[in-house]
Amino acid sequence: MQGHVSGTYVCLLFEWLNERGLDAETVLQRPRPDLDERIRVPFQEWREMLERVSQLTQDPFFGLQVGSRITPRHLGILGYVSYSCNTLGEALLRLQRFEDLVYAVNDLKVSFEGDLVLLQWGAELGVTGELADQTVQAALVSYIRYIIEPEFTPSYMSFINPTPSEVKPYEDFFRCPVRFEASYTTLAFPALWLAKPVAKPDPVLRDILDRQAENLLQQLPANDEFVDALRHAIHAAIHAATPNLDVVAMRMHCSPRTLQRRLDERSLKFQVLLDDARLQLAKRYLSKSNTSLSEIALLLGYAEQSAFNHAFKRWTGSTPKAWREKNAAVSSNW
Fold it and tell me: Is pTM, for the whole model, over 0.85?
């Protein structure tokens, strides 16, 4: 999938492995990057590194430990500029503005729900996966605890990913209710925390670093307009009940061969993009109790409900009916 993470962030995993007496470069099959946010690691490579560690350790929750090691240096200039802010609110504004310097995948959206602040990530560029999500959310919560106070506790967390074999390791780490199979990955916390002071504010340094961060942000490659247009075309094809490569190519005003070539150039697979789009739409429809499963199957371009049931279980490990019931039960408890 599209996107990248910084070399500074990837160093978290190298350091965690080395601390356990493992040769990180051998395990990850690549040299350790320099602590430099200008070094870009393709997000797909980051996911593959996490998968290798998961297979080696047989620990499905190791990302929580990796994320807990976060310090400003792992975030590069974003870490230092946020650490020099006056309050958590100021620091989170920098996170939203300069997020792409460290973690350029799905964009952060900030909103309010009553007296709660919601930091949310969707799946516009694809579902990032359980290991990547647990690592980055553990890093974010740990970083807030690092710059504000260790007692920081979210009101709740939610993840787009399927429910893991155990939820308790997540609840123990985040110290709050955690749910899965949500429409967005969400960190929710009381808005009162926004006024909490950062441990070592330095407004003069903050202003200097703000300018440096802006300059670095301008150096990032522009978003891939082809991928954006392709996702729109796939969504349109799904709504027209014709989600196949030939029809999407026609909507993109090119031949199927040209579309396939452009996908290959970006290491993208049409079926993966189609599945990602269908999964997000399916979750949206399932959240509406008045839409039947057979109707959802048709809306997603499936001729039979059984085909939709099979695909959804392959994506999430759960049937559409079970996902809807679980999501409704969890939502009612909140």
Answer: no
